[in-house]
Design the sequence.
């Protein structure tokens, strides 16, 4: 079978792939600053024979191979501002200036180095097995996923106009479940939409001994935090997933001074845009009402950022991919009861811009049940093997499920 031949071919680049992965892991780059990674990806794709463009901080390689469907596969490239504590021999010791100009440690603590490695491996396999498939394969490497802006940056830079229109889009993420060597596909809403909200409320400062002369922002903020807890509990249908987390409350720094300002930082999650917008509206309504009740002298300020769309897998495409995984990877390597997650991704901005179906799946990081260190942990260190191979194989199977020549 053609797909089996393409899968078999990646054995030829096993050592090269491992070296490439280790280099990526030890040379991470922050979101929207992935210049070295992007350059390496660009050089690889050009050497494979792809028509390559730089779009919105990302790299897109197009490989045309006759008539047929057009498949887009996306991999994200960015790392996180975390000091690595994995003790791997190829651990990162990199520091880099962030977008604020601060020097911070950098680590691939979310597995995007695996994503890039799989994307490059699949791109090589498609380029070196053109007799086995027909159509167009698009290898897209995206910046800035961790900030939630990278995919939209590519869209705003003309992605839709600059590349062939795909029929289907795919992406994947290395996760703590399923176990390493396995993949998991969920038809329907898989990852949540999310947003962060910073709220600044205003009061009237005073000496701690004269609270009657103040508008106390500490009490105001405390009332807001308490009242916010009723939004999910009393306004959202229990059948709909919704999360509202207050991650920070900052007001004053001295015991005998009532501060004039307070800042509340909130993160929200939902599986639909409708629930997300309900949460945002309810947060604003609640905060404004509490400010009025507290005699706040100035309207509160809201900053909404790090907005992620929901990831809703096309059911028909997801079932088709699941069957392809069972056929070519083996039923024992496909999670039987894979479940949605409350994490978020910005991948869907890309297929949504084209108006096409997509599937986003997970592949496993660890072959153990205890002492598992999750994504974003300073010691996050997935099993190199078979995780690297699984990501590459899954990307190939996804592409070939639409592009394989029928015999």
Sequence:
């Amino acid at each position: 079978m053609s797909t089996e031949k393409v899968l078999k071919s990646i054995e030829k680049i096993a050592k090269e792939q491992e070296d490439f992965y280790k280099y990526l892991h030890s040379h991470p780059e922050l979101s929207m600053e992935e210049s070295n990674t992007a350059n390496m990806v660009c050089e690889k794709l050009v050497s494979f024979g792809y028509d390559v463009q730089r779009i919105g901080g990302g790299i897109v390689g197009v490989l045309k191979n006759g008539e047929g469907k057009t498949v887009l596969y996306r991999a994200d490239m960015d790392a996180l501002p975390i000091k690595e504590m994995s003790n791997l021999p190829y651990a990162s010791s990199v520091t880099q200036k962030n977008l604020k100009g601060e020097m911070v440690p950098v680590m691939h603590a979310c597995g995007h180095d695996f994503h890039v490695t799989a994307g490059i491996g699949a791109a090589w396999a498609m380029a070196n097995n053109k007799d086995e498939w027909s159509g167009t394969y698009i290898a897209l490497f995206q910046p800035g996923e961790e900030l939630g802006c990278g995919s939209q940056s590519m869209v705003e830079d003309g992605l839709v106009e600059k590349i062939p229109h795909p029929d289907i889009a795919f992406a994947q993420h290395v996760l703590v479940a399923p176990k390493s060597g396995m993949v998991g596909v969920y038809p329907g809403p898989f990852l949540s939409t999310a947003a962060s909200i910073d709220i600044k409320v205003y009061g009237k400062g005073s000496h701690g001994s004269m609270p009657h002369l103040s508008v106390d922002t500490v009490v105001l903020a405390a009332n807001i935090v308490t009242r916010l807890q009723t939004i999910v509990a009393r306004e959202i249908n229990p059948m709909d997933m919704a999360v509202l987390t207050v991650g920070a409350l900052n007001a004053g720094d001295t015991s005998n001074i009532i501060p004039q300002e307070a800042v509340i930082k909130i993160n929200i999650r939902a599986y639909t845009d409708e629930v997300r917008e309900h949460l945002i509206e309810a947060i604003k309504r609640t905060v404004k009402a509490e400010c009025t009740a507290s005699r706040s002298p100035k309207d509160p300020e809201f900053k909404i950022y790090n907005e992620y769309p929901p990831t809703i897998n096309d059911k028909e495409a997801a079932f088709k991919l699941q069957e392809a995984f069972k056929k070519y990877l083996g039923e024992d390597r496909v999670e039987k009861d894979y479940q949605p997650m409350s994490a978020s991704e910005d991948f869907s901005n890309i297929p949504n811009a084209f108006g096409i179906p997509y599937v986003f799946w997970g592949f496993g990081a660890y072959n153990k049940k205890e002492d598992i260190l999750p994504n974003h942990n300073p010691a996050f260190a997935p099993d190199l093997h078979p995780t690297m191979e699984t990501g590459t194989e899954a990307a190939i199977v996804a592409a070939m499920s639409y592009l394989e020549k029928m015999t």
